[in-house]
Amino acid sequence: MPSLTITVVSDVMCPWCLIGTERLHQALAQRPDVTATVEYAPFLLDPDLPQEGADLRARLRKKYGADPDTMFGRVESAARDSGIPLDFRKVKVAPNTVGAHVLIGKAAEKGTQVALARALFQAYFLDGKNVGDPTVLASIATAHGFEADEALALVNDEQERAAVRAEAADASRQGVSGVPFFILQNRLALSGAQPIDVFLKAIDQALAQA
Questions:
Q1: Residue 91 pairs with which residues in a beta bridge?
Q2: What is d(CA 152, CA 146) in angstroms, rounded to the nearest whole number?
Q3: d(CA 121, CA 128)
Q4: N or C: which end of the chain has fewer CB within 10 A?
Q5: Cβ(31)–Cβ(3) below 8 Å
Q6: CATH classification of 3-209 is 3.40.50.2300, yes or no?
């Protein structure tokens, strides 16, 4: 059975990352003969966010100088096309996602990284939870191999947080300017929330090159 390693560079607060990773998993479901290992790497869309986060709409209005609801409509439409009931009326906060990335990184050791990453996307975009809140993060993490106290300690550990910031900055230095960004077999790169057929072609190409 062919094997494939896919690194997903993403941020929990990025709606296109939610859509892109779901499309990736939908593509992999069409290749049941492939054993895929999906790994997550951090990216910080807004590294200057305060730890408590900020009002999402005010932050976007300041950054882009436009009404964010127009942007939301386009993303919601793309999400619905992929079977994701995204409703930005539920999403109020631009969260500081460093703590979320700390937990996603540590979840690799527990074998729950993909499930936790998907749970965090769902909590933020579908349930409207603040995934920058340590208490919210700990609650979600307990379903994915963490004790609540363990998760809280990791989220608040400044060394762990600094390591995430450094890894995200390194991704930027290596040329990742936007997310989601996918690296297949450490050699084939794919940027953006591509259609499923594009993911399928990339999977087949990566396997052929291997």
A1: none
A2: 10
A3: 10
A4: N
A5: no
A6: no
Q: Domain boundaries in the chain? A: 3-209
Q: At what angle do helices 68-81 and 56-64 cross, to 10 degrees?
A: 110
Beta strands in 56-184 (DSSP E): 93-94, 181-184
Token pair 């590294």 is found at: 47
Nearest to 193 by CA among 17, 14, 36, 70: 17
Region 84-96: mean pLDDT is: 97
On the question of pLDDT at 210 being above 80, the answer is: no
> For residue range 44-72, what is the model confidence (pLDDT) as tens digits?
999 999 999 999 999 999 988 988 988 89
C-alpha 32: how far from chain center = 23
For 202-207, the CB contacts below 8 A with 24+ separation are 203/4, 203/27, 203/28, 203/31, 203/34, 206/4, 207/2, 207/4, 207/34
Please tell me whether the overall predicted TM-score, pTM, comes out greater than 0.70 for this model: yes
From 198, 195, 190, 194, select the one nearest 7 (Cα to Cα): 190
Helix ranges, 14-97 (H): 15-29, 56-64, 68-81
Q: What pLDDT is recorded for position 1?
A: 84
Tokens 């996918």 locate to 182
CA-nearest of 89, 87, 86, 91 to 56 is 91
Contact between 44 and 98 (Cβ < 8 Å): yes
| Residue 42: φ, ψ to 5° | -80, 150
